From TrEMBL:
The keyword Methyltransferase applies. Residues 183-279 form the Methyltransferase type domain. SUPFAM superfamilies: S-adenosyl-L-methionine-dependent methyltransferases. It comes from the Bacteria. One of its GO terms (molecular function) is S-adenosylmethionine-dependent methyltransferase activity. InterPro entries: Methyltransf_11 (IPR013216), SAM-dependent_MTases_sf (IPR029063). This is Methyltransferase domain-containing protein.
Amino acid sequence: MTAAQDRRWEELLRNITDMLPAGPVCVVVDGAGEQNLIVAERLAAAVHATGRACTRLFGTTPSTWSPESSADAVVVAHGPHWRAHPPRGHWDVVIWLRTPPAGNGRKSAKADADIVIDLHDPTWPVIRHSTARLGDRTRWYLTESRAFFATRAASWDTKFGDDLPAYAAAITEAGLPRDGVVVDVGCGTGRALPALRHAVGPRGGVIAVDLTPEMLAQVRSHGRAEYAALALADARHLPLADASVDAVFAAGLLTHLPDTDAGLHELARITRPGGLLVLFHPSGRAALAARHGRTLSPDEPLAEAPLRRSMHQTGWRLTGYDDPEHRFLAIAARR
């Protein structure tokens, strides 16, 4: 592996060991076929490196090990055989390795996972989920989000570039103020920037913010930097003054943030009273969920009722909500 890939593994394992509860902990790594053995071995080594005792369980006969034999250790097992026979009646931490659909096929097995790791590229693992009882997601959000998008930036427009007309249509429908200042938070490769510049006109201002340097590099390589001022920043802590913009555009942002309400609060902070918030995705929620092999829940942050509540609590008033198969578009006004 390259030095960068080694650092990625070290960073991920450090984030996982930081999440493990104090005291004796039983951990099982499942999914991704033989990769679960490799991940379990690396995790055990990382636990040892922190100074905690660690016991590795091997084989497929759980009866050969007794939890009393490692009462003070972190116990790490791997594979579906151990997953099906938890010590002490349960696993304290279940880690699920997510691979392409053809790679595991056990979609239900990840439902009760405490940590989900994207292992589409075995040299570049990324944490995509952790349960609330393992602590605040903000502890790993920054490093893991950057890692997730860094390797996808170069191919992003090849994969999703045909939705540019959908961006332009949504921005036109939103009715952004002419000559105003709009910020694209989580701008990615800058697909919205030409339409945002057209909406506010030559006397308006467009600011493009993203967390990932590689995404901003793609903005430049695609020639879209001419439409906006670029800023490398975290959407949770924007480098903009209070009430300094007339509108915020955010495509696919909220579902990536560890705290939806905190994110909406920050977007409200920078927006002038009466300003607009435009939340967009070029696929509807149901279509996007189906693409990722999951079903929608009525309490998801972008479902209409929860989103309306969150908007009200964070200084916004939801004025439009549209969620057909071909797009998601929600528009709110700053109160």
